[in-house]
Each structure stands twice: as structure tokens, then as C-alpha cells.
């Protein structure tokens, strides 16, 4: 009898990503919501408006990659100033560490571009489709002309806003007025078109579709934020001791007689959450610290004539020990935050001092290596130097060149170099040492160049060099 084949075991394929239901945040008003919209207005006025601000005949903030210059109001940064970019990144990291250690995810809840643009896109969506129940009903309904019209209008406004955001972003690298003229005359470069579409598509996709998925799965900050938390970090908390057991009741009923806490289990705190979590389950990685649940819960507490603060900003130690506001503030000044603050302030002050005291001239001196040294007609020994000058200010400056450091050293002829504002210039300088002094000197000798501003003698730069003698 032939052997029967063994049945094959079928292993089900496990999906790599778990599909989650769409989050429909409910509209809420309150103290923290007003703060959020205040930061929305502030950040967007800066972003959309700063590139249009004129300054010294140019754009106030411009990152001119082609000319290799960054303009920040009166400050002009060159490639040689890369150290300031590194310092800026360090200061940003320190500020993030400090704010997170003191008050959790303030950045995420109020000023993160993902949060800000999601808020704007949600406002457009609510304006056209209605609040949470209406949007849920509209999405569940079959496609009709009314639904198609609303969806089309919403996406049209989203796309217009996204493209304008992309144009504004590129306007910080190409002067925004020039970019506008190029757009009107259809003469934009391929790189400009690419970055406008790329940044616009990122805004449209992130704020219109990904939304909370960006915060929950893509943003790395959500994963390492807890490393910066401790028991005295101010976070959004649910007072479990006061709120549980949860349950519905009438406004006139005494919850204590029914064995209930103050939480009426209405679920509004979940409905207003932009990431769709239940804060009553404790602190979660998905919480962005927006405080929408605080505003929602406070409104319910007001309706029930209960004290506010069932959901509030507090700390782990405050909840366990029943600490008051003054004690919470006092614990904010702990060694960890004091160290962050001290390093941040010292580095900020040092950077500010360096920027305000840096000379308006950068000089690079290279001796002509084609001729080590040569004898002039009068018997003196001369070297030729090439000077590369960068004017870091936006004012045209004329510098008088002088030399010192060796007995009898002088210029072959008086030299001045004019450098336009925010530009570079070069000069070839011939330096001599008298015949009598040169007889007793041999080899490379240290010398220095001094370049003094003719119009402002207090502005001068000294640069060391080597004079070669036979």
C-alpha cells in the first residue's frame, strides 16, 4: 500500500504592521487649547513671514548655498563658521534635554511641526466636514456628490497649503521674491521644483494622513523620551486615587455613597486625544503632552460640580506623596536640571560673545611657493605672499597692510586692499628685508601681517607668517 503524503503545515503570515482605526479627534476649547493655537499662530507667522522681511537691501534670513553664505539679519556666516552650526545643534539638544526633564514633551505638544500642521489640517477638515460625529458618519457613508464635494474641497485646500509651505521652505534658500517671479514666468530650476514638491508632499502626507502614526511609530523622540524622565518630571497624569472606581451617575447623586470616584467614565478624554490613547491607563509613549485631555476633563468636572484637576500636569512623586504646587516647582530645581541649565547658559553666553566680538575680516596668507626668496635690485631679500580676505560684515571696508616681526622688514610699496561687503578679495603683497639685516639672518623667520581698517583704526587683524631668507 503506497505511503500517504504527510499533510503540510500551513503557517499563517504575520503582518509587520498592525492596522489601527482612524483617529477622529473631537474639538475642544480650554486653557491649554488656547496655548496650542497661540503657538500655531506664532510659529507660522515666523515661518511664512520671516522670508518676506527685507534687511539691508536683501532678505533678512537667507541660506544662500550657491554663494556659500548664510544671512541672519546683521549676521553673515561663511563656510569657515561651521563651528557655529555645530554649537547650534548642541544648544538645541541641551534645550530639548532640559525641557523634557522639567516638563516632559512640551516640544511635541505645542511647537513640533507635525503637531502644528496636524492641528491646521484638522481645523480645515472640521470646517468642511464637521466635528467628530459628523466626520465619522461621512466616512462611513457611501460616496455621493455631497461627500465627493466635501472631500475634494478639503484635499484641495490641503494641497494649496502644502504647496505654499513648500514654496516658503525653498524661499529660505532662493530669495522668495525671485522665486515668486520665477514661478510666475515658469522659469524655476529643476532643483527648486523638486524641493517644493518634496516638502509639499511631506506636509500633505504627514499632516493629512499619517498624523498620529508619525508620533507613535516614526519619530525617534517618542522612543527615547523616557530616558530623560524621572519621578519629578512634570507630565500629564490621571489621579487614579481620586477618579477610581469609574462609572456613570446623575449630577445630583453622591458618588461616595455609590462607591464611585470622580471619573464619570464619559470617554471624552479619549475622544479629544490626537493620538487616540486613554490617559487613564497611565503615561504612554504615544502621549505627546498636548493637554487636550486636561481641558476636556476640566469641562466635565465643571458640569458635575466636581473640583478640576482629575487629569492634570503633575509628577509621579506628587501623585504618590500628595505634593502641592510649590513643592512640585521646588523639585524642578534638582541637580539634573541645574546642570543642563548651567551648561546651556554658559555655552549660549560664550557663543553670543564670540559672535559679537568676532572681527569683520578673515585673512588667509600663503607665501608664493614658486619662488622661496629672491634678491631685489637694492640688495634686499623679498618674499611674495598671496592674501585672501573675507569681509564678514556687509559694509565695504578698505584695509591698510603693514608688516612687522623682523628688523628691517617692510613692504615693497604701500598696500591697501578694498573688500566689498559680504564678499571676498585677494591681493599679492611683496615683502622685503633690508640688505644689511638680511646678511645676519638665515632660514625661515617669524613675521606678522597687520591689516587695519582705514575708516575704523580700532578694527584690525593680525596674522602670523614665515619670511624665508637664503
From TrEMBL:
GO CC terms, sorted: plasma membrane
Keyword line: 4Fe-4S, Electron transport, Iron, Iron-sulfur, Membrane, Metal-binding, Transmembrane, Transmembrane helix, Transport
Record-annotated 4Fe-4S ferredoxin-type domain positions: 253-282
Sample GO molecular function, one term: 4 iron, 4 sulfur cluster binding
Pfam families associated with the record: Fer4_18 (PF13746), Fer4_5 (PF12801), FixG_C (PF11614)
Membrane-spanning residues: 35-55, 83-104, 156-173, 193-210, 337-355
InterPro entries listed in its UniProt record: 4Fe4S_Fe-S-bd (IPR017896), 4Fe4S_Fe_S_CS (IPR017900), Cyt_c_oxidase_cbb3_FixG (IPR014116), Electron_Trans/Redox (IPR051684), FixG_C (IPR032879), Ig-like_fold (IPR013783)
Cross-referenced PANTHER family: FERREDOXIN-TYPE PROTEIN NAPH
Name under which the protein is recorded: Cytochrome c oxidase accessory protein CcoG
Organism from which the protein derives: Zoogloea oleivorans
Amino acid at each position: 500500500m503506497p505511503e500517504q503524503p504527510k499533510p503540510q503545515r500551513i503557517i499563517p503570515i504575520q503582518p509587520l504592521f498592525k492596522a489601527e482605526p482612524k483617529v477622529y479627534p473631537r474639538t475642544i476649547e480650554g486653557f491649554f487649547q488656547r496655548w496650542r493655537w497661540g503657538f500655531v499662530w506664532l510659529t507660522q507667522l515666523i515661518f511664512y513671514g520671516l522670508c518676506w522681511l527685507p534687511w539691508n537691501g536683501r532678505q533678512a534670513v537667507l541660506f544662500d548655498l550657491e554663494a556659500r553664505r548664510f544671512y541672519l539679519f546683521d549676521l553673515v556666516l561663511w563656510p569657515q563658521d561651521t563651528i557655529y552650526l555645530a554649537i547650534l545643534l548642541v544648544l538645541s539638544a541641551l534645550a530639548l534635554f532640559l525641557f523634557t526633564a522639567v516638563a516632559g514633551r512640551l516640544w511635541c505638544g505645542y511647537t513640533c511641526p507635525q503637531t502644528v500642521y496636524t492641528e491646521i489640517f484638522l481645523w480645515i477638515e472640521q470646517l468642511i466636514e464637521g466635528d467628530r460625529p459628523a466626520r465619522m458618519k461621512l466616512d462611513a457613508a457611501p460616496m455621493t456628490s455631497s461627500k465627493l464635494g466635501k472631500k475634494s474641497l478639503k484635499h484641495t485646500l490641503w494641497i494649496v497649503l502644502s504647496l505654499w509651505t513648500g514654496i516658503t521652505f525653498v524661499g529660505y534658500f532662493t530669495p522668495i521674491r525671485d522665486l515668486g517671479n520665477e514661478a510666475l514666468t515658469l522659469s524655476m530650476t529643476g532643483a527648486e521644483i523638486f524641493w517644493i514638491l518634496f516638502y509639499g508632499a511631506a506636509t500633505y502626507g504627514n499632516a493629512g494622513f499619517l498624523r498620529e502614526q508619525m508620533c507613535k511609530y516614526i519619530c525617534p523622540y517618542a522612543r527615547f523620551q523616557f530616558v530623560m524622565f524621572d519621578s519629578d518630571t512634570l507630565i500629564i497624569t490621571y489621579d487614579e486615587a481620586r477618579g477610581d472606581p469609574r462609572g456613570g451617575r446623575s449630577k445630583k447623586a453622591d458618588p461616595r455613597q455609590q462607591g464611585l470616584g470622580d471619573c464619570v467614565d464619559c470617554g471624552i478624554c479619549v475622544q479629544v486625544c490626537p493620538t487616540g490613547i486613554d490617559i487613564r491607563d497611565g503615561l504612554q509613549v504615544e502621549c505627546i503632552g498636548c493637554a487636550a485631555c486636561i481641558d476636556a476633563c476640566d469641562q466635565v468636572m465643571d458640569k458635575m460640580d466636581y473640583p478640576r484637576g482629575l487629569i492634570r500636569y503633575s509628577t509621579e512623586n506628587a501623585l504618590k506623596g500628595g505634593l502641592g504646587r510649590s513643592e512640585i516647582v521646588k523639585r524642578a530645581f534638582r541637580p539634573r536640571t541645574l546642570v543642563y541649565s548651567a551648561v546651556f547658559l554658559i555655552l549660549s553666553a560664550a557663543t553670543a560673545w564670540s559672535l559679537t566680538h568676532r572681527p569683520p575680516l578673515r585673512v588667509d596668507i600663503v607665501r608664493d611657493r614658486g619662488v622661496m626668496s629672491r634678491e631685489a635690485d637694492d640688495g634686499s631679500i623679498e618674499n611674495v605672499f598671496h592674501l585672501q580676505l573675507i569681509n564678514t560684515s556687509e559694509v565695504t571696508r578698505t584695509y591698510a597692510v603693514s608688516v612687522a616681526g623682523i628688523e628691517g622688514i617692510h613692504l615693497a610699496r604701500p598696500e591697501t586692499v578694498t573688500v566689498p561687503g559680504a564678499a571676498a578679495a585677494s591681493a599679492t603683497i611683496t615683502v622685503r628685508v633690508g640688505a644689511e639685516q638680511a646678511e645676519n639672518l638665515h632660514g625661515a623667520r617669524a613675521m606678522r601681517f597687520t591689516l587695519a581698517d582705514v575708516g575704523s583704526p580700532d578694527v584690525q587683524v593680525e596674522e602670523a607668517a614665515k619670511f624665508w631668507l637664503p
